[in-house]
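Collaboration report, partner site 2.

Our partner group contributed sequences for two proteins of shared interest, and the home lab folded both. The records are reproduced in the order in which they were received, starting with the first partner submission.
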Amino acid sequence: MRNHYALVSLVLLSLSLTECKTGRNLTGKNASVLTASVETENRLSCCDFGTKMPDGNPVWCEASAVLFDNGTVFVANDKDMPAGLSPVFTKPWKTLADTTVRPTPLLAETFRTTRKYEDFATNGDYVFLTTAFDRVKPGSTDWDSYNTILYWKKGQEANPQVLAPQPGAKNSVALREQLGKVLSQNRPAYPNGMPYFKVEGLAVMDSLLLFGIREEGEKYDKFDYRVRIVSVPFFVEKTATGERLALRDNWRVVADFDPATVPDLPKPLALSSIEYDRTRKLFWLLTSIEVNGQLDAYLWTATPDAVLNNRPFSVVRDAAGQPVHFNHKAEDLTFIDANHLLVIHDDDRTATKVGPQTRQPHQAAYTVLKIN
């Protein structure tokens, strides 16, 4: 009988190890066996060629956020736009690269006055759009609009709301204190909160918001590049006029990842986007580098369990086993369907190549990946 129990234990152990290797705890394919390949590279236009700002300078399309929703692509530019246009606009997916089809600007005042957008996210019910939170002016409200999270129910983008502790707020600058406080934990140099940080990623899993932090430190020109993720739950609060979203008070750093642990990748890579894939129950991460004119980016995946418990991401590779990367500063990603990933690039004011063409100021490069 003792030998029988020993045999059973060995069989169960073998099955357990097999399950771990095959990733049966994931919906869909195991993150470790996912591969990706470039299917399309092209350019989209934020506005007409030759569009200028009031000062006479050209409008630059520095697209930093993208979201696909039911045949429509939402794009946010992290630079201001002239009157009559908006840094947030939409375009049909089928005509994304068609220069004869103009984008549709979202002209709600909140979209036009909020500044430096960085990332879209959705849980299927609500859409979120965050700014960088990378600047504030002490004793003044001039830069408060750089600290804003917008949200709206899907299909109601004409009426964006501000996510803030107090109803009716025009921005989310009040959230800077919580973000700065949680980022300074275990950072003895900053006992009163992280003085400078930059949000570049936003993801939402059910009722949990996750902020991706790219930079943190003493000030905007003295910081370290990071891949850190902060989580905070949210809930729907009933109001006299309907409902609003509100945050709970349990902010925490859930991930602090160093891409340098993967050999042969350029340094320093830092977070530029995070996205939750509800189909695979998997997080996707972009890291990018911009040093001495070098632009590049890499794609990563991790399970929710890994993200929420500070375990490493896995770099996504192609069929030949090489890391998938972009010769652009990839800024955000969104799924077009279960197996196609749209990646938008913010190459700032670098005249990068997209195939044989040179990107023009009013254009942004993008890549479509096939996930295998």
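Second partner submission, folded after the first:
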Amino acid sequence: MDIVAHGVWVGLGAVWMHRNRRLDRRTAALAVGMAVVPDLIQLLPLGYLALVTSDGWFVLQAYAIALPGYEPPMSPVLSELTHHLHCVMHSALVAGVVTAACWVWLRRLWLPLLGWWTHILIDVFTHSADFYPSPVLYPVTYWGFDGIAWNTPWFMVVNYLVMLAVATVMFRRK
């Protein structure tokens, strides 16, 4: 799923949660932040490239909107780095270790991590095997569920219409 949609879905979830259990704005904002961070971290090497090379901005833009099989050419090092950052940030095993460490340290669940978990769960089903499947068991395996590519035009339209419908229902009930 695209970065904005991750933030919107978690934001809607935070509004729903706030209605059923008091949730402060800081926690909600951190959860939305954690929902977009996995994709932003993956883009860091491309962002650096955009700052230091003349064609870097083009590569970053082309990468961000690429359809499966139409990714821009990148150096092997850059390609591997973005791939492994994607794998780390979309791994339930990695998120589980971080969640467990936070639990031990804080002696409770740190609620903003639900944004990261939501990101992983959504991406499992909205990434195809052709284009960055979410490797939920990385580093044990690169396997990822063959879902629908999030950037398929009809899927993006449906996704945003569903978000709009959910938001409309939620805010009308207020």
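Feedback sent to the partner group on the second submission included the following. The chain has a mean pLDDT of 90. The chain has one domain: 3-173.
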